[in-house]
Every structure is written in C-alpha cells, then in structure tokens.
Design a protein that fits this description.
- The chain contains four helices and no strands.
- The chain starts with a helix and ends with a helix.
- Helices cover about 75% and strands about 0% of the residues.
- Helix 1 (about 5-15) runs antiparallel to helix 2 (about 20-40) and helix 2 packs antiparallel against helix 3.
- By secondary structure, the protein is mainly α.
Length: about 80
C-alpha cells in the first residue's frame, strides 16, 4: 500500500454513512496504525515530502477521531470536508 492509498482510504472512511461514529473512529485508528508501520519501515520508498505529508495526515486523523468521538453528529460536517 502506498501513501496515496492511505489518503484515499481516509477520505472514504470519513464519507461513510450508515455506520456509527465509533466504528468510523475505529477504522481511522486502523489507518493510523498502518501509517505508523509505513513510517517506521526502513525499506519504505517514501520521499521526504511524503514522510512530512504522512505525519501531517496522522495528526489530522487523530484530531478528527477525537472530534468524532467527542462531538455531536451535526458538528462534524465541517470536519468531513477536510
């Protein structure tokens, strides 16, 4: 799986409807773990910019997950567009 796949997966998870917020948060957590593995892989082919982007993506996923678990469903619309 390359970095673009992670970005696509995150966007797909954020746009899922019909599943609970907790389930979406769990799916995002799984992607965070996979990103950690990608970043720690010594054989990774990520360039410097992709590494920086992956770290930023990780942080934004974590922030979104916490909001997902803490906020009311109606307040999440602005976060889904990111």
């Amino acid at each position: 799986m390359d970095f673009d796949d992670f970005k696509s997966n995150i966007n797909a998870i954020k746009s899922l409807s019909g599943i609970s917020q907790k389930k979406r948060a769990t799916l995002l957590f799984t992607q965070m773990n996979a990103l950690e593995m990608l970043l720690s892989d010594e054989k990774s082919t990520l360039n410097c910019q992709e590494i920086a982007d992956a770290r930023n993506l990780y942080g934004s996923i974590d922030t979104y997950r916490h909001r997902l678990l803490d906020e009311e469903p109606n307040n999440l619309d602005m976060h889904l567009q990111k």
